[in-house]
Amino acid sequence: MSSWVPGAAGSGYDVDHLPFGVFSVGDDNPRVGVRIGGYVLDLAPLGSLQLIDGAQVFRARTLNPFLAAGPVAWRETRDWLTSLLSVPGHRDAVEPFLLPLHDVRLVLPIVVGDYVDFYCSEHHASNVGAILRPDGTWLPEAWRHLPIGYHGRSGTVVVSGSDVRRPCGQRRGDERPEFGPTQRLDLEAEVGFVVGVPSGRGDRVPTNAFGDHVFGVTLLNDWSARDIQAWEYVPLGPFAGKSFGTSIAAWITPLDALAQARTRLPGQYPAPPAYLGVEEPAGYDIGLEVWVNDTLVATPPYASTYWSPAQMLAHLTANGASLRAGDLFASGTVSGPRADERGSLLELSWGGTQPITLGDGTQRTFLEDGDVVTLTATAPGALGGSIRLAEVIGQVQPALPPT
Questions:
Q1: Where in the chain is the domain with CATH 2.30.30.230?
Q2: Strands, E assignment, 270-401
Q3: Please, which pLDDT band fits residue 53 given cuts at 50, 70 and 90?
Q4: Sign of CA dihedral 99, 100, 102, 106
Q5: CB-hemisphere CA count at 13 Å for 214?
Q6: How far apart are CA 298 and CA 121, in angstroms?
Q7: Is the peptide bond before 45 cis (omega within 30 degrees of 0)?
Q8: Known catalytic residues?
Q9: Domain with CATH 3.90.850.10 in the chain
Q10: Is CATH 3.40.50.1000 the classification given to domain 115-397?
């Protein structure tokens, strides 16, 4: 099965993908759409014409009402769209609602309620430990017993294409702390998960209910100021070194589109507590790419990540913390076992001691003003090829003058 939409076949955005986003066309009237090939399908008028139950959610300015509708509505909508876009007989009815991507403006697809960033890659955590604590214990004591995370700042989550200003903050100085622009601005290649169905305060979400609450997946860049972070993070963890900006894709890939990408976890020893137990396959085979300007600098494999997204969600709610539609939680930096699979410049440059060389001959240990960071990813698709997760792009802008 493939789509009749021109160019959809082989694009990574065929009917086995169908990611959701929010767009506008010059009139500043954002509404919900689905990407198919190089087009956006405008769901609001199409749903109304075809008398789809609940079509009013497609007129919303965010995905949140659709996310809150739950997995039955998600799957019914996906089945409806698959039929419309793959059966040639529907072409005349649907084609008027296809808009070329270059004619629309994409906006942040969700209103983010809470944002939690985890620390789930053993290779990343071990690398960071080796860099920062070469003579100490690389992994925190609790690391193999629970997915460690911290609460980020939802108000600074931005859509792909948004610039990121170099933050100012306090960092270690020669004699006393200094305040000024970060000198160690970093990227973090991550996979984010978007919550749809809420949970009640005091309730716990077990690992086997992951698909009942989580709608889909987005690539995510959790920009980091490593020198600010290093000075502030003991004992409570990241704060100003992380909260200035997090970029996500404009399109959210439904979990159902990743059904063929399910894979076993790399192994968890010791066995986690019962509330974190999962049925395999619990991981996802998503291959990330990290680009700085026009140079591919890393290919982190999400399949190597130690803690699964179902375990992240179970631990996030283990104390009764509630979920809301639009909540976002992320894997933390994805890194694999090889040197070219490290998902941050902190690791790629080994703490700034081993510069990497870009295609133009310049070198980097950390990001410079004007640098453009792009995250891309692919995963196995149901049509036998691959789907392409929507990219995350951001350009570094100079810091504001310190006051």
A1: 20-107
A2: 283-284, 287-292, 295-298, 328-330, 356-357, 363-364, 372-380, 386-397
A3: confident
A4: positive
A5: 28
A6: 15
A7: no
A8: 124
A9: 115-397
A10: no
